[in-house]
Each structure stands twice: as structure tokens, then as C-alpha cells.
Design goal:
It is built from 13 helices and 14 strands. By secondary structure, the chain is an alpha/beta fold. The structure holds pyridoxal-5'-phosphate (PLP).
Length: 363
């Protein structure tokens, strides 16, 4: 059956990535494997804009596992330090829930759907004393791309740690950890890297590493970053990593390098995004009035049931896009631009979407 993913993750894979699993691979407690880990790590650090003092570790988990591990390793329940969360949707809320779950005090800047984060929001919390800010660079549930320079300056001026979930911005929107003074960034395998799900990566600045290494009792044995930081210089993880995904990563990073590196990759995603937004206007939808990531386009329909549209799109034509949760479920869906899809695929998707939308409008 024909099936193409225009989803936010897992996404349409590159054919070469999809063959890795079948080829087989060496055991992971070997020099061969360590070599691949070390090479992947250097390449990822470079794509993330990490300086020499940064470290990157691999976790066998989805992105949320890395978000939770970050909360566990960067904060200490026995310390009175408070965190600040930018909460503009489902993933911002997840940071709030994780902090709450682990008993870490925090304030949050809560944004309504369609409300852009502004300097006024920050001004309202400027009297607060915070040790760290947690933000999802791109709030994937709404499409909002946050003004990172503004957040970075806020953190620098207050000597706060800057913790960024870059899962849905990595390889879609430009950013550099060092330039923005990001102390910790989380990415994961199934988004911009177009790999199988199951592996998350956490990059840390020197000062974040020091903080993590000094942390007393992390409330998770498995996700204690200290073990990962100690093992990574020799290209190893404390426990069995998703070995296959590590080899898929090698292949993908090789492809990105062969195609000219980060800039051409970002351009490719941007081209798809721009093309989709230009060509899709005939569908008769609105986009929210916020700065958008290149990773996806949110389509808001006032007159038809958006959820029904994408069910038809999937069931009749094999195209997968993402619905929206909560109150907007029948109003909004999201089309991603990070997977292995060509402009011709986009044309085809739009033709099929047009049919589904017309049906919903009874024309
Ligand atoms: C996808 C995503 C995650 C992680 O979700 P998992 O399902 O746990 O992998 C976290 N944050 C953002 C911004 C995301 O887009």
C-alpha cells in the first residue's frame, strides 16, 4: 500500500537509512562501535554549534525521556532554586509537569494558542530569581518558533542556565548552542535526523557538565548523566544503546556531510516549507499569527472538520499528517517538512488534500 509520512516524527526516512537495520552490525562493546559513536558525536556537536568544552551523550529513550532526565540531573529537590518555563503548548506543559512531578519549584509563562512570546512576557517575571530557563525552541504543538536571542539575553543577564528542547528545531531552524549560550540542548532520532525512534541526545556546556557531575543523588539510576559523561570519551554508553539507530545516525550524518553540511540541509527544509506554504493557500485555511518554525505548517480551518479531512487523506490516499490535540483537534492539523519528501511529493499531497477539503465542504 502507498504510504507517505508528512508527520512531525517519526518521519519519512531516506531509503538508505531504512536499509541499515537489514545489513546487520557489530556488537557495541567493540572498537568498531566506539569509533562510530565518537565520529557521530563530533559531527552532531558541530551541527549543534558546540564549542570544544561541550559534551554530548546518548540515551535509549524518546525525547520525553531526555526531557525528564534533564530535569532529574540539572535540578536538585533539596535545593530551593527555582526554574522558569516557557509554556506555549503541549511540550511546554510537559516541562511543567515534569518539574511538578519531581518537586522542583518553578514559574511558567503561559501562552494562549496564537499568542506570540514577547518582551512584555519576560518583563513580568523579571523580578523573579531563577536558576534556569526551560524552553522548547519550537513548540511543535502550535508551530511557534520562540525568539531565541531574546531568551538567551534574558538568561545571560541573570546568570541563569539556558536549557533548550531543540527536538523539533534541530536541522529545521538555524541555531548554535555556543552563540546563544545554551547550556543544555535535547534532540532526538525520529525528528530532523529522520531516523528510527528510540534514541535521544543531550548536549551540555562545560558549566552544565560541572553542575551535573556535582549533583548528589539523581532520582533515576538509569538516567544518571554522570555515568554517560564518564563513558562517552571512549565512545561508549553505560548500558546497551539503540545500536541500530547509532548506525542509522552514522549513515544520515554522512549524507548530510556529502550534501554540503548544515546550511544546505536547512535550505532544503526551508525550500519545502516555503513551497508548501505558497502552494497550499488555495485550501482556504489560516495560519496562526505567530513566528513559525520551518519544521511544520499549522493549517487552521474555520469551516470544516480538520480531523475528518486528515482521516480521509490517510484512509483514501495513504498520506499521513498530524492532527492537533485538545480543543483544536477539529480545527487544526500540521504538515511537516523535515522528512524525505520531494517537491513533487508536496504537489501530490496538495492535490489529495484539495480533494479531501472539497469533500468536507460538499463541493
Ligand atoms: C517530538 C517532541 C518531543 C519528544 O516527544 P517523544 O514522543 O517523547 O519523542 C519533545 N519536544 C518537542 C518540542 C517535540 O517536538
Amino acid at each position: 500500500m502507498f504510504r507517505k509520512l508528512f508527520t512531525i516524527g517519526p518521519v519519512q526516512m531516506y531509503p538508505n537509512t531504512a536499509t541499515i537495520r537489514a545489513k546487520g552490525f557489530p556488537h557495541f562493546r567493540t572498537d568498531e562501535f566506539s569509533k562510530v559513536v565518537l565520529s557521530n558525536t563530533e559531527k552532531l556537536k558541530s551541527l549543534l554549534g558546540c564549542g570544544a568544552s561541550y559534551s554530548l551523550i546518548y540515551l535509549a529513550s524518546s525525547g520525553t525521556g531526555a526531557m525528564e532526565a534533564t530535569v532529574e540531573n540539572c535540578f536538585d529537590i533539596s535545593s530551593p532554586e527555582k526554574a522558569l518555563v516557557i509554556n506555549g503548548g503541549g511540550f511546554g506543559k510537559r516541562f511543567c509537569e515534569l518539574l511538578q512531578y519531581h518537586g522542583i519549584p518553578f514559574d511558567s509563562i503561559d501562552l494562549k494558542w496564537n499568542e506570540p512570546l514577547s518582551a512584555e512576557h519576560l518583563a513580568k517575571v523579571s523580578d523573579g530569581k531563577y536558576c534556569a530557563m526551560l524552553v522548547n525552541m519550537h513548540e511543535t504543538t502550535t508551530g511557534q518558533l520562540y525568539p531565541m536571542k531574546m531568551l538567551s539575553d534574558f538568561c545571560k543577564n541573570r546568570e541563569m542556565l539556558f536549557i533548550v528542547d531543540a527536538i523539533s528545531s534541530f536541522l529545521a531552524d538555524p541555531f548554535s548552542m555556543e552563540e546563544l549560550g545554551i547550556d543544555l540542548a535535547i534532540i532526538s532520532s525520529q525528528k530532523g535526523l529522520c531516523l528510527s525512534p528510540g534514541m535521544a541526545m543531550v548536549a551540555m556546556s562545560g558549566r552544565m557538565k560541572d553542575r551535573v557531575m556535582a549533583h548528589g543523588r539523581v532520582p533515576s539510576f538509569y538516567f544518571d548523566f554522570k555515568d554517560y559523561l564518564v563513558n562517552i570519551p571512549r565512545g561508549q554508553t553505560p548500558y546497551t544503546p539503540p545500536v541500530c539507530v547509532m548506525f542509522e545516525l552514522e549513515d544520515m550524518l554522512d549524507m548530510i556531510e556529502k550534501r554540503g553540511g548544515l546550511q544546505p540541509r536547512l535550505e532544503e527544509v526551508k525550500t519545502r516549507c516555503t513551497y508548501f506554504r505558497e502552494k497550499s493557500s488555495a485550501l482556504g485555511y489560516k495560519t496562526p499569527d505567530i513566528p513559525l518554525s520551518n519544521m511544520l505548517t499549522p493549517l487552521y480551518f474555520e469551516d470544516i472538520n480538520a480531523y475528518d479531512v486528515i482521516q480521509t487523506l490517510k484512509n483514501d490516499f495513504g498520506y499521513y499528517v498530524n492532527p492537533c490535540g485538545g480543543e483544536l483537534a477539529t480545527k487544526l492539523f500540521r504538515v511537516s517538512h523535515i522528512g524525505n519528501t520531494t517537491l513533487a511529493d508536496i504537489d501530490d499531497l496538495l492535490a489529495k488534500l484539495q480533494i479531501c477539503v472539497k469533500r468536507a465542504r460538499n463541493i
